[in-house]
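Write out the 3D structure for:
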Amino acid sequence: MPVLALLSALFVVGFEQIVQWKYGATGLVGLLLLTVGIKAKSPALSSAGAVVLAMLVAGPAL
């Protein structure tokens, strides 16, 4: 069981680093809002995080 927790923690940290590297601090804030909103079961926070991430991804296409 500890191996699974360690692997999932490494995946989450790696994913956060990739988002921050590619999208900067705004991407990290969007990911943080999305994660906190999901854990707190807050639709407002998770929606705000999803919108921030969607705007960052779709920004060059707009």
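Helices lie at 2-39, 43-58.
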